[in-house]
């Protein structure tokens, strides 16, 4: 007998999780594009970083598209060179946050708030990484 409760079965829980699943689908589609399109090739239709294109300054995420392309093609060394911080910190953090979001949606519970210390650490890490990579590139010239 159906009691009219929403989200009782597996289909209801999956329906409640459509947003994190849609995000995963979008990332999968972007990965599919990066399997076929090499952002390192001249004339690639993938857009460059706007900050880098306008100012010559590397943003904290500069190289992430090339890093993802290299990672998808099994070239961990190149991925590391394109953006080591996104590779070892950004991707695991994003996966952890996405997993918390998906788990909460599947359980029907509110998505847990990210502790402010995590947000503050991300901001500090981005600023330090941006300064370090730009100062190091000046010294390398």
Explain the overall architecture.
This is DUF2752 domain-containing protein. Keywords: Membrane, Transmembrane, Transmembrane helix. The protein is an all-alpha fold and 141 residues long. The chain has one domain (10-140). Helices cover 70% and strands 0% of the residues. It has 6 helices and no strands. It has helices at 10-16, 18-36, 50-55, 64-72, 76-107, 116-140. Helix 4 (64-72) packs across helix 5. It is globular. Mean pLDDT is 89; it is low at 1-7.
The ordered string of helix (H) and strand (E) elements is HHHHHH
* Main sheet overview: none
Q: Mean of residue pLDDT?
A: 89
Rg estimate, integer Å: 19 Å
Helix content: 55-70%
Number of strands: 0
* Overall 3D form: globular
Gap between N and C termini: 73 Å
Poorly predicted ranges: 1-7
Blueprint of the fold:
Blueprint: H1 10-16, H2 18-36, H3 50-55, H4 64-72, H5 76-107, H6 116-140
Helix pairs in contact: 4-5
Transmembrane segments: 20-37, 76-98, 118-136
Pfam families: DUF2752
InterPro entries: DUF2752
Structure summarized in a few sentences:
With 141 residues, the protein is an all-alpha fold. It has 6 helices and no strands.
Notable traits:
single chain, 141 residues, mainly alpha, disordered N terminus
């Amino acid at each position: 007998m159906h009691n009219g409760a929403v989200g009782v079965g597996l289909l209801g829980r999956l329906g409640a999780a459509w947003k994190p699943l849609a995000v995963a689908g979008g990332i999968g589609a972007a990965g599919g594009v990066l399997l076929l399109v090499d952002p390192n090739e001249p004339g690639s239709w993938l857009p460059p970083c706007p900050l880098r294109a306008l100012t010559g300054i590397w943003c904290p995420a500069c190289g992430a598209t090339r890093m993802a392309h290299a990672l998808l093609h099994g070239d961990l060394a190149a991925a590391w060179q394109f953006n080591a911080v996104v590779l070892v910190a950004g991707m695991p953090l994003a996966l952890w946050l996405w997993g918390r979001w998906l788990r909460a949606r599947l359980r029907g519970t509110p998505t847990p708030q990210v502790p402010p210390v995590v947000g503050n650490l991300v901001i500090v890490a981005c600023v330090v990484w941006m300064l370090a990579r730009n100062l190091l590139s000046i010294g390398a010239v």
